[in-house]
Amino acid sequence: MKTEDIASLYRRLLRAYGPQGWWPADDPWEVCVGAILTQRVAWRNAEAALSGLRRADLLSPAALDAAPAEAIAEAIRPALFYNAKATKLKALARALLETWGGDPTAMRGEPAHTVRAALLAVHGIGSETADAILLYVAKRPTFVADRYALRLFERLGWVPPGASYEPVRAAVMAAWPADADAYGELHALIVCHGKERCGPRPTCSGCPLSSLCAHPQRRGGRR
After folding, report:
1. Could you say which of 81, 113, 136 is where a domain stops?
2. CATH number (domain holding residue 81)
3. Which of 75, 86, 93, 167 could bond to 61 as cystine, CB 3.0-4.6 Å?
């Protein structure tokens, strides 16, 4: 993975789709909650679940920590896997209260590796969720190597089939050191491109990345 390739990817996607203004939530705590709610589902499901928590007056760390898991699960049904996610939300709320005094912005006063390790120690938080919180809440540089990025990079020929999260994250950060704003924009643009064009069945015709791409369908592609 080369610096100039990632820089070109960023420029082309930005030119094609414009600034994304991510993360799509109202405040830092909603970003944390949304990062769990969107696991394995589309953002529209997570957004509906956020609204459910808001209606039930359960959208604060203290409220989630005190509420029965069953009540949380009922409020977040649109997010699917709601029983498991209710348990995860309670674990995150407890960790936030114990470690950062209930204030997610307090993460910004600690080293990035400390925050990431603390997040990864919370039940239900894996690398992708931890990095989303680290990037959009703690405002620390990190690359979110989600399924959209892995699929795109494989099609570009930058990573082998089946490449896993941590090596790809490390490779991007080594090749393209950037600040949190740039990594956030890159992640959002890759997600946008994945939804607009580079899904499971890609639309390659007219793709802004066609000259970079090694995917077999890049000549002509699907319409």
Report:
1. 136
2. 1.10.340.30
3. 93
> Around 218, how many Cα atoms within 13 Å sit in the side-chain half-sphere?
13
Q: How many domains does the chain have?
A: 2
Q: For residue 49, give every residue at least 6 positions away whose Cβ sits within 8 Å of its Cβ, in sequence order, or none.
A: 37, 75, 76, 77, 78, 79, 82, 85
Q: Tell me how far apart the alpha carbons of residues 136 and 32 are, in angstroms, rounded to a whole number.
A: 9
pLDDT at 102: 97
d(CA 193, CA 18): 11
Beta-carbon contacts of 76 under 8 Å, excluding residues fewer than 6 positions away, are 37, 49, 52, 53, 82, 85, 86, 89
The verdict on residue 223 lying in a domain is no
| Token duo for residue 179 | 């600040």
What DSSP designation does 77 have? G
Q: What global pTM score does this model have?
A: 0.93
